Amino acid sequence: MRMKIETEYTRIFHYCLYYLHQKEDAEDATQETFLRYLQHPEYESHPRQYLYRIAKNLCIDKLRKIRPDSLDEEFTHANTPDILTHVALRIAMDELPDEDREIIFLRYVSGEKISLIANMYGVSRFVMSRRIKKITQILKEKL
Asked: Which of 46, 58, 43, 56 has the alpha carbon at shortest distance from 105?
C-alpha cells in the first residue's frame, strides 16, 4: 500500500494534537512518528495502522513527562456558534473511558474507516461498528 505522506502527516498531527493539546508538542510527536516509521520499512502492509500505534505510544510517553500544572491548559473555541453544546459535548466526552474517546476521535474527527479502527483494536468490523454506535448513543443521552 502506497501512502501520501502529506495526507498521513495531517492525520497523525491531528491525532497527536488530540492527545497532547499543544501544537508544538503535537508537531514534535508527528515528526518523531514518521522518523520511527521510516526506520522500520517492514510495516509496509499496514502503514496507517502502524503510524497511529507509534503516535499513540509517543504521545503517552510525552504525557507522562508533563508537569501536572500544565495539564490545565486547554484550547478555547470562542468562535463556536453554540458554546453550550460544545461545553456539554466536551463534558460528555470527558466522562467516556479513554479508549472510547479515542475511537470516537478516530472515526469522526480523523474520519478513519471502521475497518482500520477495528484492526487497531483487534476486533471485527461488526464489533467495532456496534461499539461506535453504543458510544454515540451514550453521548446523545448525555446531551
From this structure: 56
Distance CA 33, CA 55 (A): 5
Distance CA 141, CA 10 (A): 32
Rounded CA-CA distance 116/104 in Å is 13
Residues 67-123 have pLDDT tens digits of 444 433 443 444 444 555 666 777 788 888 989 988 988 888 888 899 999 998 999
106 close to 117: Cβ distance less than 8 angstroms: yes
Q: What is the pLDDT of residue 77?
A: 42
Neighbours of 31 (CB within 10 A): 15
Q: How far apart are CA 12 and CA 33, in angstroms?
A: 8
Question: Among positive and negative, which fits the CA dihedral 100, 104, 106, 107?
Answer: positive
Residue 39 half-sphere exposure, CB side, CA atoms within 13 Å? 7
Is the pLDDT higher at 11 or at 85?
11
> pTM for the complete prediction?
0.61
Distance between CA atoms of residues 127 and 143, nearest Å = 25
